[in-house]
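Working notes for the structural subgroup meeting. M.R. asked for a predicted model of this chain before we commit to crystallization trials. I am recording the input and output together here so anyone reviewing the notebook later can reproduce the run.

Input as submitted:
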Amino acid sequence: MSTLIRLAVITDVHGNSLALEAVLHDIRRAAPDQVINLGDQVWGQVDPRGAYELQSQLAAIEVRGNNDEKPLLAADRIAAPDAAYRDWLLQHVSAEELKRLNSLPLTALAADGRVLAAHGTPTSAWDNLLWRLADDRLVPREDDEFAADLEQLDESVEVVVVGHTHRERIVRSGGRLLVNAGPVAWQQDGDPRARWTLLERRGADWHAEVRRVAYDWFSAAKQVAANRPVQPEEAAAHLVGVDQRP
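Returned structure, recorded in token form:
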């Protein structure tokens, strides 16, 4: 295997094809060896149809996000606002396509098993690996807090990359590089730029670079409104870079 490996990681597109197009343009310029998609592909109101089509053409390594599971939850497990959101989404993405996303694996390996990809943690698309909630805000987890989430991993895994929290973080722990990739859509830090992460293995060392890409978030907000969504407040989220997931 070549000593230089370059992987592009995207996550949490949430139906925002405009942000995704800008990210993909930047990725093409970087010319990685492989794209990894960490899930939550279409649960959003900018353009879920276009976002699905763009992602389905990437030939990416894909894993399942928690919002890829949500549309197929049983009626007694999904909250009423999410059920309405799901019904809206089905007008744009077919039930068969949503089933495909729901059937994606929880984890996947890349770079000959050296990189493990997951949405939340290696055991759950809903849990957080490098962050935890405290008083309704994200705070970093310490090594002893996330060690249990990694104890079953094969020793050959050198990098664990996740999404889900919509907040970047890069940690070296136990000889591994742990990366929380930034989201394509629905930012958490007030910066509306779309995100992706470049993973590089140079010789024996892995490095992660967070990339931030400007795009027309004003048009994204207008497109939400034009789509007559069930969650109209999402339009403002794209302008101010604040996560407003239902």
